[in-house]
Specification:
Number of domains: 3
Shape: elongated
Length: 543
């Protein structure tokens, strides 16, 4: 059982109807070929923290990190497109696809790296002019030390320099029309790009001892830039020995466009933005497939603003502003404002991202609201509520009967599940959004004029709270602790590239406290994270 894919699959509209065992942990699929400890299920402060971190000391670059790191090492104009053909991780088995469990190297991956290294080395040494972009000089020693430092993300040892010097001389003596320097450089580049020192980020210090400055520089850069550290950051690496020094460098990096792009990856996987392309509506006149791209970009722009403007979880949950494309405007009841996707005030009924069209339309059945998926997704992805596995035999959602509201239909359908999962967790959250139909349009009535009831009571980690509608629920979530703890857990998992489990609760609580503070920005949470021992030290684990 994967953590979310079987619960939130786009085509599996009713797979979560009869959830049972709400206090159990969700499973974890292990992709690593080596033996691993059994998954540990745990709940801390009401937050579900399943998993079995390996704490690998060598963590392979993700495909996108590889592509951007090649750009840095070879000083080329753009990330390498060769990574597009690499084998992709299986999404849904962990919170994020950069998790250590998904970054093993099999024969297919090794072949991909080998052929890519050969192709790139040929490309950048095709002429002396092209090679000047990689390294402007013509001395072998300078070339090896400069490019080697970028590839290894640290200075080469004397033994490594000697080995590459011998390799350079072997290449330079080969036949061919290229210059002697280009032939030597080609063989060195081919080898460096296949080295484990390039393909893996390392955490090789003693257990519970700080990582060295170069390992910190690499960890920062691969997280915040999604790429290997450049020459400037490598120059600063020896100074990255204190939490304050690390935070100072990270603070500057957070203002770079690359950091916003990295957080784009984070929010895409956190809230499944890739699924916008799969939206399909049958028999809904107001739907057009062209809306899918608008939904996706609107969602990205909303979270990009949260990050770049120094906003945080509270704003995610309560902002009444959103981004509106030309096709979305009428669905919001707004006039069109050109062909661009622009920020608009959406009115008091649209409180937070989860009251906006992208989320509501994605979690809907044609023109009908989908209370179950709306409830499940917020419980899992926003509140980290522990939910059990779905029952094996799930009945379909029946059509609405005359005089029946959707709330009545779902309540009747789920009444036999035992109570806790649906009646206290899933249904209340889903019913809070009943004022929004399957296209995300606001309504006061349904099914021929029946009044809508969006009130409920939700059992938060700090206690039960009654609410009148989605807006009031979002404000409770913003003021409480559970949503902040959940976001902190997810952010830590993405940054540390591993499962976050109950033993990590002190870190999660620290980040959540920052999130609930006066400004409570995502950037402040990230700065607090890089100062924490969980980021700066090696926990241990296998090579």
């Amino acid at each position: 059982m994967t953590r979310r894919s079987r619960v939130l699959g786009a085509a599996l509209c009713v797979t979560t109807l009869l959830l049972a065992g709400c206090t159990g942990s969700l499973g974890h699929d292990e992709e690593d070929e080596s033996p691993s400890p059994a998954p540990s299920g745990g709940v801390a402060r009401g937050i579900d923290m399943p998993g079995a971190p390996r704490y690998h000391r060598l963590v392979r670059l993700t495909n996108s990190q590889w592509a951007s790191s090649v750009q840095v090492v070879l000083n080329v104009a753009a990330p390498s497109s060769l990574a597009d053909g690499f084998e992709k991780p299986v999404a849904g088995t962990t919170d994020f696809t950069n998790n250590e469990h998904l970054l093993s190297v099999n024969q297919r991956a090794w072949t991909d790296y080998q052929s890519a290294a050969e192709e790139l080395a040929e490309e950048v040494t095709a002429s002396d002019e092209a090679l000047e972009d990689v390294y402007p000089g013509t001395d072998a020693a300078g070339f090896i030390e400069t490019v080697g430092r970028r590839a290894y993300r640290r200075p080469l040892t004397d033994a490594e320099v000697a080995g590459y010097t011998a390799l350079f001389e072997t290449g330079a003596a080969m036949s061919g029309s290229k210059s002697t320097f280009a032939k030597g450089a080609q063989l060195v580049i081919r080898t460096m790009l296949q080295s484990p020192h390039f393909l893996y980020r390392t955490e090789l210090g003693e257990d519970r001892k700080p990582l060295d400055g170069y390992e910190i520089a690499a960890k920062l850069s691969l997280w915040l830039r999604n790429a290997a550290p450049d020459d400037e950051l490598l120059d600063k690496a020896p100074t990255l020995t204190t939490p304050e020094a690390i935070a100072k460098v990270a603070e500057s990096m957070l203002e770079e466009p690359a950091a916003a792009k990295s957080m784009r990856y984070f929010h895409r996987e956190l809230l499944h933005f890739d699924r916008y392309a799969t939206i399909s509506k049958l028999g809904v006149p107001s739907y057009n497939e062209s809306l899918n791209a608008e939904y996706e970009e609107s969602a990205y722009l909303f979270f990009e603003k949260i990050f770049t403007d120094g906003l945080g979880v509270r704003d995610i949950l309560t902002s009444t502003k959103g981004f509106v494309g030309p096709g979305m405007a009428s669905l919001y009841g707004l006039s069109a404002s050109g062909r661009d996707i622009v920020e608009r005030d959406l009115g008091p009924d649209r409180v937070g991202f989860f009251s906006q069209l992208p989320y509501l339309t994605l979690n809907a059945l044609n023109d009908e609201s989908d209370s179950i998926h709306r409830g499940v997704s917020i419980n899992l992805d926003v509140l980290c509520t522990p939910l059990g596995a779905p029952a094996p035999n799930i009945p379909p959602v029946p059509p609405l009967e005359p005089g029946q509201t959707n709330r009545q239909r779902i309540t009747q359908l789920t009444s036999a599940c035992g109570g806790l999962c649906h009646n206290e967790l899933i249904n209340p959250v889903g019913f809070a959004f009943e004022h929004f139909d399957g296209m995300g349009q606001y309504r006061d009535e349904e099914n021929g004029g029946l009044p809508i009831d969006s009130s409920g009571v939700y059992s938060f980690s700090e206690g039960a709270k009654p609410f009148a509608d989605a807006g009031e629920l979002m404000h409770y979530m913003a003021d409480g602790e559970q949503a902040h703890l959940c976001y902190a857990k997810k952010l830590a998992s993405f940054a540390l590239q591993r499962d976050v489990i109950p033993s990590d609760l002190p870190l999660v609580e620290t980040l959540a406290k920052v999130s609930r503070g006066a400004s409570g920005s995502v950037k402040e949470m990230m700065l607090e994270l890089v100062k924490d021992e969980a980021f700066r030290t090696r926990v241990g684990g296998p090579l």
